[in-house]
C-alpha cells in the first residue's frame, strides 16, 4: 500500500477566501474504478467560489477544486481507458483538485492529446465541456442553425470566450454581454458577432435592435438574478432560457404563468455534471472539445496564473470579476 503526502487546499467552514488553507494529506492507492493522478496544473472556476461560500452546500472539511491535468500514477481494478504514464485531464465530481496528487473516480478522466499542454488541459475542461453541452446539447425548439442569434452573458469569461469562438465556428451569430468596454472588445476579438456593455447600455433594447425586434432563440446565462428578467424578454416565442450559473446571486422564485405570457418560452437550469454521468458521454463531449481546440478553431486563453500558495488571492480576483479568460493554479 503506497502512502504519498500531498499538499491540498481545504476549508473547515464556509466563508471568504481567508478560509482556504493549505494542509498536508496522505494519498493511498486507487480502488476499483479509480486512478491516482499527479497534477501538473489545476483549473479555477466560479463553482469553487460557490462551494467555498456555502451557496452550494457540501460536507466539511472540504477539499476544493473541480478540474486539473496531470499524469496517471496508478490505475485501479476495472479501469481500461487509462494506464500509468498517460497524460490526462478532467472536470469531475467529487471536488478535490486543488492538490499535488489525488485518488479519484476514473470515469470522467480523459486522455489528454499530446497537442494540448497541461496548462491548457487544466484550464479548458470544465469551461470547455460547459460550452460544449450548452451549444450542442442545450438547444431551443428546432435546434440551432447557421445564422441564428443567441445571447451569451459574461461573454469575456472563461466559458464565454470559448463559446464565442465555438459559436462562430458553428455559423451562429452570438451576441455577447460584458461589464466593460475592454471585456466587450475581448469577446468581439474571439468571435462574438455583436457585443453589449451592460454597464452602459440596456441589453434588452440592443438585442431587439440587433435582431430586428424578433429576439433570440436562446439565452445562455451564468450571471443569475441581475440579468434574469430582461433575458426572458430577449427571447423569441418558444425560445429557451438556459441558466447555468448565478455569479450575481440566485434567481428569485417566479410564477410559471409568465412564461406563457412571454411567448410560451422554455426555462432550464443546467449543470455540467448531469451531462458527464457516464464514461461514454464524458468521452464523446471531451473528443468534441479536443477536436475544436487542436484544430485551432477555439483557442484557450489563460490570462491569470497563481501558484497554489496564492489560492486566496486567486479566489479574490475571481470574485471581484477582475479575471478574463481562464485562471489556473500552478504546482
Describe the model.
The protein has 331 residues and is an alpha/beta fold. The protein has 2 domains: 4-127 and 273-330, Medium-chain alcohol dehydrogenases, catalytic domain (Quinone Oxidoreductase, Chain A, domain 1, Alpha-Beta Complex), CATH 3.90.180; 139-269, NAD(P)-binding Rossmann-like Domain (Rossmann fold), CATH 3.40.50.720. Helices cover 29% and strands 28% of the residues. The protein has 10 helices and 16 strands. It has helices spanning 46-53, 118-137, 158-169, 181-189, 203-210, 228-233, 257-261, 272-275, 279-294, 311-319; strands spanning 4-11, 21-27, 34-44, 62-63, 67-75, 87-91, 101-105, 109-111, 149-152, 173-178, 194-197, 216-221, 235-243, 266-269, 302-307, 326-330. Strands 3, 5, 6, 7, 8, 15 and 16 form a 7-stranded mixed β-sheet that branches. It has a 6-stranded parallel β-sheet with strand order 11-10-9-12-13-14, with helices on both faces. The chain has a 3-stranded antiparallel β-sheet with strand order 2-1-4, with no helix packed on it. Helix 6 links the parallel strand 12 and strand 13. The longest helix has 20 residues, at 118-137. The relative contact order is 0.15. The model has no long low-confidence stretch (mean pLDDT 96).
Write down how many β-strands occur, each being a DSSP E stretch of 2 or more residues.
16
Instruction: Please state the structural category.
Output: alpha/beta
CATH fold-level label of the largest domain: Quinone Oxidoreductase, Chain A, domain 1
CATH superfamily membership of the largest domain, which one? Medium-chain alcohol dehydrogenases, catalytic domain
Shape: globular
Cα-based radius of gyration, to the nearest Å: 20 Å
Portion of residues in beta strands equals: 25-35%
- Give, in order, the helices and strands: EEEHEEEEEHEHEHEHEHEHEHHEHE
Number of domains: 2
